[in-house]
Amino acid sequence: MTTLGVNLDHIATIREARKTNEPDPVLGAYIIELAGAHGVTIHLREDRRHIQDRDLHLFRKVVTKLKLNLEMATTDEMLAMATDIMPDQVTLVPEKRAEITTEGGLDIINHGQTVQNAVNTLKKVGIETSLFIDPYPEIIRQAKKLGADAIELHTGEYAAAKDFVSQKQELRKLQENATLGAELGLIVLAGHGLTYQNVTPVSVIIEVQELNIGHSIISRAVYVGLERAIREMLALLKG
Ligand code: PXP
């Protein structure tokens, strides 16, 4: 079965809308465990628009049974933070201040050296390192060359496809590049823009071991509660 990492950034987004102390995203970690999901994902952004440093420290203290996956940019500040906090996994992502959410995968072709340095720094201290990348063969091969343990295939184009034909094309790209990644010995994950409506075709790609899903789960949680929202997503992943 494909495992599920739940991205809790959007709980922090609600808190930061008022710069208050509720809702606390850290409490979400307990619900994720209770609901039977497999990981907690958070993105500490340079501008601290949602997750704060305090959250990261607390998450590390409370997430002991599940995987704590920290999404971050390849900056010195973030690398220092990661090697101090020691999440179970770091996912390196591109980051632009003006973007609403992560746009596109990390450019590991043109910024190979920066990514390589970050991967080396993280691996030296024993943090599993994943690269959030677009599903193209040359990018997958480059991820392998740079020494990543895992790749997270960006499903944004699939999720944004306007019609059935382009959705099918995007799905095929995901399938083929998941196969390539697995053949190269990389752990293959996927995520971004996945919803209750579009997740199934991605979840049945055999090489994809884990999905990271945030916005759709938290949106549903507003009405049905976080535990039920996660359980409903898990039920889809079980098929
Ligand atoms: N994976 C990565 C690398 C991301 O940056 C995000 C968004 O923070 C997600 C997965 C989750 O995307 P969504 O919130 O659209 O489910």
Automatic annotation (TrEMBL):
Residues that, per the record, bind 3-amino-2-oxopropyl phosphate: 7, 18, 193, 214-215
UniProt subcellular location: Cytoplasm
Active site: 43 (proton acceptor), 71 (proton acceptor), 192 (proton donor)
Signal peptide: none
Keyword Repeat on entry: no
Stored CDD domains: PNPsynthase
Protein species of origin: candidate division CSSED10-310 bacterium
SUPFAM superfamilies: Pyridoxine 5'-phosphate synthase (SSF63892)
Protein name from the UniProt record: Pyridoxine 5'-phosphate synthase
Site positions (Transition state stabilizer): 152
MF-aspect GO terms: pyridoxine 5'-phosphate synthase activity
Catalytic activity: 3-amino-2-oxopropyl phosphate + 1-deoxy-D-xylulose 5-phosphate = pyridoxine 5'-phosphate + phosphate + 2 H2O + H(+)
